[in-house]
What we know:
Blueprint: H1 7-29, E1 32-37, H2 40-57, E2 61-66, H3 70-79, E3 86-90, H4 91-99, E4 121-122, E5 125-138, H5 139-142, H6 150-154, E6 163-166, H7 169-179, H8 192-202, E7 206-210, H9 213-221, E8 227-231, H10 232-240, E9 245-260, H11 268-278, H12 281-284, H13 287-290, H14 301-304, H15 309-314, H16 319-322, E10 326-327, H17 330-333, H18 338-350
Parallel strand pairs: 1-2, 1-3, 6-7, 6-8, 9-10
Antiparallel strand pairs: 3-9, 4-5, 5-8, 5-9
Helix pairs in contact: 2-11, 7-8, 8-18, 9-10
Amino acid sequence: MSTFSIAPRARVLSVTLALCGFAATQAIAGETITFAGYGGDYQKNIVKALIKPAAEKENLDLRTESHDGLATVRVQVASGKPAWDVVQLGAEECATGSTQGLFEKLDYKLINTDGIPAEAKGSDWIASNYYSVVLAYRTDKYKDNPPKTWADFWDVKKFPGKRSLALAPQETMEIALLADGVTPDKLYPLDQKRAIKSLERIKPNVSAWWTSGAQSAQLLRDGEVDMEAIWGSRIAPVLQSGAPVNFTFNQGLLAYACLAIPKGAKHVAEARKLIADVVTPSIQANIPEVMPFYGPVNSKAFDIRKFSPDVLAKANSSPQNRAQQVPMNGAWWGMDQNLQKGNESLRALINQ
């Protein structure tokens, strides 16, 4: 009669269960994905509204870092081992990086593009959220007759006062052309020479060419300028300060930030899934409540969640506010060295 021992099988079973438990632990822990943006409160809010919920949905651990723009992404890619898996950039930076081959392709089998405008995505980048450039003004200066259009901003006789514009061709040249009578549907391709001629006319009345959001807010809050082209998000703290300031979304520029995966990133597959989740309506719908004066790039976010009238009034891409604004084409600035040419011509004008 043969003898059957369960000891060897028990040992095998024990090892098997231990390995399964280890695998389960690894699955629960997930991979660690690194997101890099421009830092500050803006990045904290982007992570809260978009990146963290997407990472949690994919069971990914999240690490966040900051960068100084496309140049630093380029350095990371050139190293062959970029430390970042997902980066947020400006629209013109995504377009430029794409032409330079700095990004991995996205997987559009994972991304449902319903509700996302065609101009807000490329083969290797996609818009994450909207921001606006709006016309803001001092109410103690203009009382009940404020400027309402960029043509008003250029009309120094009807609306005397000190002005401020951004020292950046993207945004500033669009504004100059709208002020000169170009209709939104004819804005692109931008006529940079016409924009410079328009800026020549307003230059004597521009007291400051701002270079940071903080500076633009300070100029308006402290009354150093009477009207200004300013990022909508920078209006919020000025209004909260009690300064006599207001703004209009009319003819505002509706622009977007975007997400991309640096070429050679360690976790490309996970990054593609995270980006696909970020642009879903359910996660995009976090933006209006977490980030006033920004807005979802996916219009369906407004269909799946009910927002208060106050939240909708501040969300720049809510139906009522989006209808008043002019979409920017960030991709155009990334083509044919348009951004470099624009920078050179704008700085040459200012230095005259």
